[in-house]
Amino acid sequence: LVQGVEHNICAADFRTAPFRDATKHERVKLAVCAKYGIAAKDCNGKNYELDDIVSIETGGRNVEANLWPEPIRQARIKDHRVEDELGGPRGLICQGKIGLRDAQQCQLRDWVECLQKVRRLEKQKK
Q1: What are phi and psi of 85, to 5 degrees?
Q2: Which of 10, 66, 93, 125 is most buried, by CB atoms within 10 Å?
Q3: What is the DSSP string of 38-61?
Q4: Which residues pair with 50 in a beta bridge?
Q5: Residue 73: is its pLDDT beyond 60?
């Protein structure tokens, strides 16, 4: 977890692309899949994508220890409904609706439960 990064993730020009190098290496992807018990033949773009456990948008680091093989069918939901809503310049952290540490812990515990929390917080902002 990276703390004290609110000023960076809340900057209008914040982008995650510069932090994503670790996920581009096949060796890393296979190592992460193996750690989670997924066979190399199944560790492909049709089934899984590497994702940050604590998202870059919320101050997570793009290192092997913070990566997991996310089932493709979950990826868009988690990426857009949890990560994007929590972090980034327009996210709940930058709006002061949730603290950085709370957002990171939310993702660490259970992203599905975290999605419910995000939905409750979004209702508050309206």
Answers
A1: -75, -30
A2: 93
A3: --GGG-STTTEEEEESS-GGGT--
A4: 69
A5: yes
Q: Contact 93/118 with Cβ under 8 angstroms?
A: no
Give the separation between CA 54 and CA 63, rounded to whole angstroms.
11
DSSP state at residue 111: H
Question: Which of 26-35, 66-75, 82-91, 100-109 is predicted with the least confidence, judged by mean pLDDT?
Answer: 82-91
**Spatial distance between the Cα atoms of 88 and 69, rounded to a whole number of angstroms:** 23
Contact 107, 55 (CB under 8 A): yes
H/E segment holding residue 70: strand 67-71
Contact 88, 125 (CB under 8 A): no
pTM: 0.79
| φ/ψ bin of 70: left (φ > 0), alpha (ψ from -120 to 50), beta (otherwise) | beta
Helix (H) or strand (E) holding 79: none
* Spatial CB neighbours of 93, under 8 Å, sequence gap ≥ 6: 6, 9, 10, 58, 86, 87, 99, 100, 103
